[in-house]
Amino acid sequence: MKTPLVFSIGPKGDRIARHIAQLLGSPVHLCGTGRDDAAPLVKKAYAERAPIVGVCAAGILIRLLGTDLGDKVSEPPVLAVSADGKIAVPLLGSHRGANALARWVAEGFRGTAAVTSFSDTLYDFSLDDPPPGYAVGNPEAVRPLMAALLKGEKLNVEGPSGWLSLAGYPVDPEGSLLLRVTERAAAGPGLLVHPKTLVVGLGCTSRAESAEVIELIEQVLGSEGLSPHALAAFATIESHGDAEALRAAALHFDVPLRVFTKREIGREKARLHSPSDAVEEAIGVPGVCEAVALKAGALLVPKRKSEHVTCAVGRADMPVDPRQFGKGV
After folding, report:
1. What would the 3-class secondary structure string for the chain be?
2. Which domain holds residue 177?
3. Do 95 and 149 belong together in one domain?
4. What is the pTM of this model?
5. 129 lies in a domain?
6. What is the per-residue pLDDT for 73?
């Protein structure tokens, strides 16, 4: 996500703006002279599609945007917050993060998120802004499906559907609206939602380059028909956590790189599909990529290798929370 613009237009809102900016890890802009100082900041952030949080009246923020409003599909989250932090109003980009951001701000200040989008008043989330652990594979299919739901149609779900039922969605095996929950990248009818249940286990030598890592992962995903949107994390042994090639590959796929200790990896020895005596002699465990992939649950794709990189894919039964998977680097 691009760095959010957080600003206030008067001293009464400065404290709240500072607090929001600190929590978001963003700079804060205190526009003490009012709208004249804020206008160029807001227009620049909107043009760059960066989230905008203004501690000001909703009407002021609307006027600051003026005629710059663009396509709904590409607009950034735009949020107006009252000077005491008690009211957070998502103005634009409701399902591109504004509703979630409003709820987050409201929770932090024990206030209210003034969410008005129709789908969010009926369900816990809209399908174009699914909860953490899920990603939409074909966003263009969301709007017609949501429109049909609001007219009384029901979802026919292929795959795990409990998370949808808990959110209030009408799930029925005889429903007319197809929704597929799968790690596969297969084309076809209906809305495609990818659960982030896949972990790519990686091993490498000191001669590995990021391009080689990325190419091997893409080959593995492509040959198995797996979607990159279903990736929850990359994983490796702790001693490889600072390998620039792995870090760059994780950044390329926009997933975190997590690490496990040699002892944790050794516990998977009996479950390895392709153990290596040479690897065990070199580093003390018979394999890295399969072992860390197995930490997800089951081994979906056994070890594949290129000249300097090894890769395997593990699959969990439920979406993986990377924060609870291994350790960060």
Report:
1. CCCCEEEECCHHHHHHHHHHHHHHCCCEEECCCCHHHHHHHHHHHHHCCCCEEEECCHHHHHHHHCCCCCCCCCCCCEEEECCCCCEEEEEECHHHCHHHHHHHHHHHCCCEECCCCHHHHHCCCCCCCCCCCEEECCHHHHHHHHHHHHCCCCEEEECCCHHHHHCCCCECCCCCEEEEECCECCCCCCEEEEECCEEEEEEECCCCCHHHHHHHHHHHHHHHCECHHHEEEEEEEHHHCCCHHHHHHHHHHCCCEEEECHHHHHCCHHHCCCCCHHHHHHHCCCCCHHHHHHCCCEEEEEEEECCCEEEEEEECCCCCCHHHCCEEC
2. 134-195
3. no
4. 0.72
5. no
6. 60
